[in-house]
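re the bet — no i am not wrong, look at it urself. input seq straight from the record:
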Amino acid sequence: MVGGRVSLFVGFSVALVSLLIGVVIGSTSGYFGGHLDSVLMRFTDIMLSIPSLPLLLILSRYGGGSVWSIILILSVFSWMGLARIVRGTILSIKQRDFVEAARMTGARNGRIVFRHILPSTLAPVIVNATLTLGFAIIAESSLSYLGLGVQPPTPTWGQMLIGAQQFMETAPWLALIPGLFLFVTLLCINFLGDGLRDALDPKMTLQN
C-alpha cells in the first residue's frame, strides 16, 4: 500500500502536469492559428520525434532519483498527444455559431476558449489524461525496476518487484502482490477512462 501511494502520486502528478501543458499549448495553437500555430505544432512534432525511452533512461540516471525529478522527466514527454487532440478539436468547433455569438457579445479570447470551447473537448481530454496516468505509472515502475527511478528508501511497486526477484523460488508472493496491484490499478484506470468517455461524449450518449 505504501509503494502504491508513491506510484499513484507520480502517475497523477504527471497526468496533471501533462494535462495543463497540453491544454494550454493545444488551445493556443488551435484558437489563434497562423504563425503561432505553426511554431507550436512544429515544436510538438520535434518533441514527438525524440526517442523518449533512451532519454528517459539517461535523464533518470542523472536526475537524482527523487520523486519530483521523475515527475518532471515523465511530464516532459507526456503532453504532446493531448496538445494535438485539443488543437484538432478546437479547430473543428471554433467557427461554430455559439463561438461567433460569444465574439459578438464582446467576450475576450480567454473567456471564449476556457468558457465556451474547452468544455467541448472534455471527453477526449479526460480519456487522454487516463492514458497518460497509466503510462506514467508503467514508466515509473519500469524505471524503478531498472534501478533508475525513485531510489530507496522510498518504496514503489517497481522497486518491490526488483527486490523480490531473488526470492521468486522461496517467496513468490513478494513479487506477485505488487505485480497484481499494478495490473489491477492499470485495468481500473482504463475502465475509468472508457466510462468517463461514454458519460461525457454526447455522441456516445445518443448512441446508447
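see?? The two ends are 38 Å apart (CA to CA). told u. also The first helix runs from residue 2 to 32. so pay up
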